[in-house]
Amino acid sequence: MSEWIYVALFIAVGLIIPIGAIAAGFILGPKKPNPIKEATYECGVEPVGEAWIQFKPQYYIFALVFLVFDVEAVFLFPWAVKLGQLGLYAVVEGIIFVSILIIGLVYTWRKGMLEWL
Amino acid sequence: MTGAQIIFIVVALYTLGSALMVVTTRNLIHAALWLVSTLFGVAVTYALMNANFIAVVQVVVYIGAIAILFIFAVMLTRKDMRDSGPQMNKNWWLGALVAVLVFAGLAFMLSGWSGFSKVAADLPSGFDSVSLLGEALVSPQAYVLPFEVASVLLLAALVGAVYVAFNRK
Amino acid sequence: MVPLSWYLTLAAALFSIGLFGVLVRRNAVAILLGVELMLNAVNINLVAFWRYSDALTSMGGQVFAIIVFAVAAAEVSVGLALVISAYRRRNTVIADELDMLKW
Questions:
Q1: Each residue of A21-68: pLDDT tens digit?
Q2: Of A18, A30, B54, B100, which is most buried with the most CB atoms under 10 A?
């Protein structure tokens, strides 16, 4: 339990710094709004169109592949921690586990889904 | 009341409040962000139960990947993101009634169970749940079959999702 | 120390809220959000039963919690792919309007 106090401290500091920065700007800064100041900041370029538009489907594919390999990493992490004390069968099982998922990656790749259109 | 109990009550109220916002907010992007908040509360609950690895996995998988997938799906399924029309069914009160009845039934069943107010034993010192988990996942006497089947399940999910969503005719 | 009943009550409440979302929401993505809440409630139960069991070194509860993570990932990826596919063909994500099989 007690080791989580550091995590809680980390989260608290991570919240206080941005909230403090925004609050300081809100309290101390002068407020003289005009239409150009109110415009959305888009890397210095004039904003075009709305922000609430439909996105490209490629984002979904990349998030999907990331999700699948994220879960794979979750399974492999305890396996890797214990691998030194386990025998050859654990290595073989890990290889089977990874190679099954590699098939999925190859399928996605061969379908051309990993190209950024 | 001890400190752990106060922390639990605060976390539980936070989690349930966020969950209520998930099911009642009109704007779907906001609902997905409230889901992130709920999942974080659940991760803290795991940490309170000394399931450190599960708590980290909850943040990495649920908040890091699943919630992001939800946000992408919301962005992909509407041309105009402003919500129009009601977000709930006409007979939403019936759904609320069913949910309350399910909660009452679960609470009634659990309260009659003898182990309901059990108190946990302390963890032995030097308890390493990640090593034990790794051993359990690959040992043939334990959970090696679910471990490999999970891989097949993820493969099926990846191939199926790519095929269903992006099969260009 | 927190008794087991508190965790089980929290999980039951979270499950009921998720059930409410599944039954009531019209948007298919929002229905899947409710399913996620229900899966999380189940996971709280699994981990709680591991923590409060007498055999702490048998990791069954945590192993099944991780399996539930994999199942949730599969369910979300295929479910949202179905929603996206339905949106591309029928141009709607409202569950009530996807009623082709009724006719």
A1: 999 998 998 888 888 777 777 777 776 666 556 667 778 888 888 898
A2: B54
pLDDT per residue as tens, chain C (103 positions): 788 888 889 999 999 999 999 998 888 888 999 999 999 999 999 999 888 887 777 788 888 899 999 999 999 999 988 888 888 887 777 777 777 777 6
d(CA C43, CA B42): 9
Closest residue, chain A, to B159 (C-alpha):
A104
A92 touches chain C (CB under 8 A): no
Nearest Cβ partner of B117 from C4, C43, C74?
A: C4
Contact B82 A52 (CB under 8 A): yes
Burial B59-68 (b: 16+ CB within 10 A, else e): bbbbbbbbbb
Structural class in CATH, domain B1-79: mainly alpha
Q: Which of A86, A96, A107 is nearest residue B159 as measured by Cβ atoms?
A: A107
Please tell me the predicted confidence (pLDDT) of residue A51: 59
Nearest partner of C70 among C35, C31, C39, C94, judged by Cα: C39
* Contact (Cβ atoms closer than 8 angstroms) between residue B138 and residue A90: yes
pLDDT band with cut points at 50, 70 and 90 for residue B83: low
**Burial (CB count <10 Å: 0-12, 13-18, 19+), residue B145:** exposed
* C81 contacts on A by Cβ (under 8 Å): 60, 64
What are the extents of the domains in chain B?
1-79, 128-169
Q: Domains for chain C: give ranges and CATH numbers.
A: 4-94 (1.10.287.3510)
* Pick among 3.40.50.1980, 3.40.50.1820, 1.20.58.1610, 3.40.50.300: CATH of A2-110: 1.20.58.1610
Phi, psi of B9 (to 5 degrees): -65, -40
